[in-house]
Amino acid sequence: MINQASADKKPGFSWAAIVSLLVGSLLLFLVFRKIDFREFSNALAQTRWGWIAWALLCGLLSHWFRALRWVMLAEPLGHRPPSLLTFCAVMSGYLANLALPRVGEITRCFLLDRKTPLGFNALVGTVVMERLMDLLVLLLLSIVVLFAYSELLWDPVMAFVGVRATGMRWIQELLIIASLVLLPIVLWKFMGRWIPIPQNIRAMLKDFVQGMTGLWRLPNPVFFAAYTVLIWLGYFLMTYLCFFAFPGTEGLGPGEALLLLVAGAFGFVMPVQGGMGAYHAAIVWTLGRIPGLLMSTSSALAFATLVHLAQTILVVVVGGLCYFLMSLVPDHQQAD
């Protein structure tokens, strides 16, 4: 019979999607409320769409490398899923994220579990493992950006927390970074001591941990590292190539692309559909602080809207096609 247990795990639409949509809509309203729409539309009209196409190709390749990396994490579980099927699950997950933030991670595990003998809980463990790796990369890139653009980024942070810049500011920066890194580790270390875990939850966590520890059982960890680099290189190029597509950003270089990549990544992790509103605000704020960039708020928002819309269309078109293709693949038959 078809894996009924997996079917019961299918993510559904809930009130959280409505709340998330309302929050995203509010953020969009706050970002757009004082915009000169004539200037905004004129800036969009000057877009060089050929560069957008190349940027989207880089984004698509990064998604493909993410699928290949996921195949490597799943293989130690006893089955190597087909790369194309895994890619379709990844893109379907991105599509689900447009309905409800973070539900895409569960969706792609559910879909791959339905089509392969891999266990759902173990697949969730592999996704958590790769997300932790991405979080590590984002943290490292954030540290690089924070020190490379120290005056640009740290001064507002220091002013917000009421700390004046001093000659020993690098010590302040290191202390803040260390606190951000160590706090989650301390919470994770002592959470299990304070909260008792039921036996059935422990059994589920055992499968979950099996998927997470697959990183240490990879046949070729070099390829895993290479795929991770290629994923983030694709994200970087997607941002950098968009500079050439938009009037006013042609003079920006790789450093500014890395800066916007990190800012946009934090916008996308906000609990709103596809980073709606949060991504726009992060990009507009960052562009507005780049020294020597003579770009109005309306033009900066047009750039953010263009990049976000292009990525969303890519997910809708490719993700929709991938979800349809997965529906044509027979479910994995599993005995009782």
Descriptors for this entry?
336 residues, mainly alpha, disordered N terminus
Characterise the protein shown here.
With 336 residues, the chain is mostly helical. The protein has one domain (49-295, 305-328). Helices cover 74% and strands 0% of the residues. The chain contains 14 helices and no strands. It is globular and about 60 Å long. The termini are close together. The model is unreliable at 1-13 (pLDDT under 50).
Explain the layout of strands and helices.
Layout: H1 4-8, H2 15-32, H3 37-45, H4 49-74, H5 83-97, H6 103-115, H7 120-148, H8 150-161, H9 169-194, H10 199-212, H11 221-243, H12 254-268, H13 278-287, H14 297-328
Report the order of strands and helices: HHHHHHHHHHHHHH
Query: Helicity, in percent?
Result: over 70%
Question: Between the first and last Cα atoms, what is the distance in angstroms?
Answer: 7 Å
Contiguous low-pLDDT stretches (5 residues minimum) are 1-13
**Roughly how many Å is the radius of gyration?**
21 Å
Average pLDDT, rounded to a whole number, is 78
Count of separate structural domains? 1
Shape: globular
Our count of helices gives 14
